[in-house]
Specification:
TIM Barrel, alpha/beta, 244 residues, globular, binds iron/sulfur cluster, 9 helices, 9-stranded mixed sheet
Length: 244
Amino acid sequence: MQTEAYIHSIETMGTLEGPGLRYVIFMQGCPMRCRFCHNPDTWYISRGRLVNVDWLFNDIGKYLPYIQASGGVSVSGGEPLLQADFLEVLFRRLAAIKVHKLIDTSGFASVERVKGLINLTDLILLSIKSIRPARFQEMSGQSPERTFRLARYLTQIEKPVWVRYVIIPGITDDASELQELAAWIAGMPNVQRLELLPYHALGVYKWSRLGIEYPLPQAQPPTEQQMNEVRAKLASWLPGRKIV
Ligand code: SF4
């Protein structure tokens, strides 16, 4: 039983990581190296802050009146599934007091190793870096095999999923690739919504602070019109599905 974990930070009243008002834990450590990552300071696990499960559970307890009604606890990162054993201990305790729990993940994990945690999780936010294997590898530095295998498992057990996809004009908004993404989602009835995240450059300063060259210096955030166009295309390929 793992009772300690490395975290990056905590946001006690988050509104962007899942439904309602949420206590958000950003875990430290990530095996991916996404070219558009805005949290490169979460990559190395040993640079995190070591916390104990009792401390974290008690801290969450202070916010229960705010998060219990319509929100819950979200775990993001970094890659939360890297420290799945610790989260399983935490989620078991949260389940006992009926707190909604979600994980925001890139899916880079062995299904066998994270099954216990997934079973305790109410909702998975699954980030797809690209639907095409070669592009996925290029964008994230990792093979998509584990992510797609986890996605298949989530469909098999009918686990509620929100798919997240970052829109970078000229890089991830190619119509044929979006159509492939839509076809993939169409085969997953457990996907409750597709969240399109507009690329932003707010984390670029962290790359230079870490002394790493930013790999997408030309990337620009999409305009409102570009986002609407992408949303309209996907809506036409995914009738009846929620796209935000
Ligand atoms: S999975 Fe998330 S934290 Fe990890 S490199 Fe990609 S964007 Fe950054």
